[in-house]
Amino acid sequence: MGSCLSPSSSLPRPRVWWSLGALSTMHTGVNDSPSPEDDLGHWLQSTSDPSATLGLAFSKLSVSGVTNGSRYQQTFATYPISFLRWITGGLLKKETISTPILTGLDGLLHPGEMCLVLGRPGSGCSTFLKTISGNRAGLLVDPATKVQYAGISDDSMHSRYRSESLYCADEDIHFPDLNVTHTLEFAARAKPVSPQATPEDHKSYPSKAAATMLTSFFLEKCAQTKVGNEVKRGISGGEKKRVSLAEVMSSRARIQCWDSSTSGLDSATSTRFIQNLRRATDAHGSVALAALYQVSRDTCNTFDKVLLLFEGRQIFFGPTQEALLYFERLGFVCPRNFTVPDFLTALTHPLELHTLCKKDAKNCPRTSVEFAEAWEHSVEKQALMLNIDKYMRDHSSTNISVRELNLDRLSEGPYSISLLAQLHMCLQRAMQRFQTNIGASISMAVGNLILALIIGSVFYNLPSNAETLLRRSILLFYIITINAFLFSAEVAMLWEHRPIIEKHRRFAFHHPMIEAASSMLCDLPNKILASLAFNIPIYFMSNLRRSASAFFTFYIISFVCLLTLSMFFRMAGSFSRSIVQTIVPVGVYLSVCVIYSGFILPVSSMLSWLSWIRFVNPLYFALESVMINEFDGRAYPCQKLIPSGASYSNSDRFQKACSVASAEPGSHEVDGTVYIRHLYGFRHDCLWRNLGILLAMLFIFCVIHLLASEYIKPPVPRGTVLEFRQGVRKTKSDLEASNKNSASFNTAVHKANERIALEDVCPTLQWKDISYFVKINKSEKKIISEISGYIRKGEVTALMGATGSGKTSLLNALAHRTHEGLSGEILYEGQVPSTSFQRLIGYAQQEDVHLHTATVREALIFSAQLRRPSHSVTSVTAIEVVEEVIEMLEMDSYADAVVGHLGEGLNLGQRRRLTIAVELVAQPSGILFLDEPTSNLDSQTAWSICMLLRKLAANGLAILCTIHQPSSSLINLFDKLLLLGRDGHQLYFGDFGQDANIMIEYFEEAGARACRSNENPAEWMLEVTEKVPETRATSWGERWRTSRQRNDSMRMLEHRMEKAAADKVLDVPQEAESEFAASFTTQYTLLVKRTSQEFWRSPSYIWSKFGLCIGIALFVGVSLWMSPLSLQGLQSQLFSLFLIFTIGNSGMKQIIYSFSHRRILFEARESHSKIYSRSVFVLASITAELPWQTLTAVPVFFLWYFPTGIFRTAEGGERAERGALLFLLLWAFFVFMGTFAVMVGSAIKSAPVAANIAVVLYQLMLLFCGVLAAPAILPRFWIWMYRISPLTYLVSGMMSASIADVSVTCQASETVNFTSPPNMSCGKYIEPYVRDHGGYLLNPEEVDRCSFCPWTTTNSYLSTVGIESVHKWRDFGIFLVFVLVNIFFALVLYEFTGPKKHRKDKKNHE
Q: Which whole number is the average pLDDT over 1168-1188?
């Protein structure tokens, strides 16, 4: 079989040689400079390989969507059942539901052919592309299906040759810290040059390929700009879309599936992309399938074949030229103002069919089944099946194409390049990310340095005596713990990057484990820097063992411990399904590590059946080694002897002993080796053994992490299968996107004036010389420049321009959503817009941002109830308006469906309608802005939306909307045009005219070529404005500034502004001046209700919270089972509080991430629309958390209070009082944790950064609360920190309520041993000392060896840590005050860090 690129080929590919020839003949002028087409042509020719082409044949293709269990929404109550099913596996039958999506599809595509996939949203276009490309997660392909790729089987194609079949989804996911050039170079490196290329070609290819893509997609201006994301500023949305397209095109895959890839691009850019795709398929002999909406005539003509789907059934497949003839034979007629794609898509709209049938046609198909039957019996279908059969016979499974495909491979398997090459390019990318993020690494090191200086000052210059042994032990324990926790934020980083890594895995760019390995290697400098910044200052400031060998031993062990726990965090992140679920095992494991580190619970005190945990605990081995390194072989002199005083001045040395346990009688110093063995069970010969064990654990965690990264796939998405709340009956059609509706949309639109009650006064908006700048690094970039115009009631104005021209920025400026960097004048009926302006207008933004747990109806009701004054819109009338809008926008079939996350739940078209509906139910007063209202909608739905806008304008609204790809007929629905150039300058403002004749006349007079009669005026306009006018040397922007039309417009604008200012026609009611429509109480009540529903419907979040807290409390309670009231028992009791408080580290992270998601929704849409205030947002978040924090405190209390035996410290009524106070204190701790997390989350927008800051602040609270360092030994400089630490009062209250006024019983290992004088009993000898200092003897009648316990009651012990039991209720009250302080600062900080407020006195001048 000949190649499709061969002139002698029998394949029907006449366009191939014309296209390749055109690449060199398109620009033949002598003075022509190289064009993007030239660059792309050279790149395509240099990378083409005619011997490695692929075709595609599929027969009887049927696909179903598979969901695991009910399509009802999971809640807190239903989650345990689902969890039980997951645990039991086969014991409980797991319900699976299979929903047919595609039925019986057939098709054939030869190398170099392009196929246009048409159908309304929900017809199965995305599923078809996913199936062809091998992205079949959540999909079930019928066994009878046959798919073949030029002799390569379906299974082999999507396993061994996965890199040759790519699916480009409608999503723009990239590393935000990489610039555009680095992003495209990485994609180029993943696909090798041909094996015949020289080493120089291999080295220079990525940069050349990236340069070609930058030029072809007009990305040169942003080549060095970071891509960015929703948090980090970067390139625009249109530029990001072009980066995504260029990335896939760089892969040079043989089978390319493009899903809504032109969404968000203007018509000129879309056409250019399709033309580039045409050239690429011709040059490479590849196959391209693209599902597009609102396809232009020129774009349609670029494709070879078209596949038309109607509710998952194939109703046509064949050449695009034959599609129109086929349906005309069936009795349909294409209206004159319809393009062929519009006509074909309209056939799949049940409400449009009757208008397309010929008058004399009697048997026109009406349903998808009838269309499918007509196609099944057609001549075209029979010919297609013959060709498919012949194609499959000609390509056996051992076809030579398999060998040809291997010619451009460097390795076997699904990846195109070797493992070493993958590692090299991933390392290079990781280093680029590290370099662009060097500021974050430095700031982290500085933060660790500050923390080390604080801790070092608390333990500053510890004396080398026996009395500091406990403080040294506490310090070493704390250092190791901090090292272990230092990089716990890597879990968040892992989850932030996972979607990108998963995309590259699907593209077969690299193994996920290779990226994981490169990330680990490139993070080493960051870890070394942070470790040095923390460990060096604290080591020398605290006067730990001063020798080179001791320091380096300490640092090596600390650093290896840091790496080991860091690897555990990565491993846990690789196994988990969500970041919230990751926090649970990490939090519980860290707490268990702390408990069984050997310090809080020495080996001798561990339960025998749980002591094995220390052998899988890195902290145990690290702490033992640093303890041995510090204490082994050292003698610490005693400063305090027992007994001491005037009565014992003549006693010999055997009759006194060091006050430190483990001291030998008669010895006035303590052997460090004996000390750590006696108290903790640490042996001096285990130092280097432990380092080996740590390295082994590091290796094991690393291997598991790499394997999990490679083989554990992300959760299978449910796709756009609709999900409903429990108790709501599902509709019949809930596939990808059910769009059936018995009601006529046009009928609903005609009734709109009866349903949407507009205000009597409908103001207009004027703006003059609007410019907008943004700061990028240290420079300013002008986005829009000196834009002037107006909108008035009754008119629909289109805002158009090339992708990246600043259309959305202008809309944001006019809607007062942008404040910084803005200059110019904006007047609302002659006046500066008031604070109520944002809530009075409607703004359907481009991003479909909605609460994922709410249903469509709930989202609309929430908007309706809060966007209009409560006295004019009651709950009943709000619901009525919602129902009317649902009917108008044909949303009945999914009105009770859950919105879901992007990619699950509602599809893109349904989300677009919901965004528009949210604004319509608010009943905007005069002005409606819409940003891309027709994106991701088919032509018929786009027409319906524009017809609705037309009707709304007739009812008195002034409408301004951006639109990218309008058809010729759609343009006639707009009155005026505001056109922006690619550089942000204004190119035109004025009337469209009938069939855009006024606009066309202006540009033709200005030097543009004539617009042909069959040409789309919008596409023509964007095409001609991309070039300098042929008859003039000035730009289009300059031409507009000097034009007569602009002068006329400016005179009219100034006249209107003067007249409006003079007339002051706006008699604004008092309630319209208020910033928010609803009262504070209404806002608070409705938002608390919605947030509470969100928590109830987020079972993974709530159950993870329970799992974390209960898991830690259970381990603490069981590990300290019936803790004795000995010295070690008292210390364990004190540290058990420390362990309970470690819940705060992970618990606050959970709350911060949850709060951050709600903050994104609030700041992206709801704050700009003035639905509710920022103070209500903060208070509602705190209030909704309160019941769950309370509920969590109950099991934690019981699992800690009773197992540890604290209840035994009192009897009768006092026991009840103490137990009640302990519960109240524990409950207050959980409330404090929630309010503190919200406070930090309010101050810092980035969730990972906020979580890190919260943990650091919390660690400082723990450091200064009196547990780790008693107030008596704190440096006086830090005593104020002890006073203001909230945990100081919590610890004091809980210790007073738990162990105060209880007798102490020392164990034998805790006593101070000495001998009494001859013939004198121990009791007689120690009596003077006991009288002055307290304590008691275990053997008062003994004559020789005396065993003395330094404390008689627990109050003596509590006094050493600054706790007085009489203040326990006072401490509870003070701690509650700190809760209120958190709430106050959360409100205050969010006022400064939240969205910028509009100031009425600010006239938009900078």
A: 93
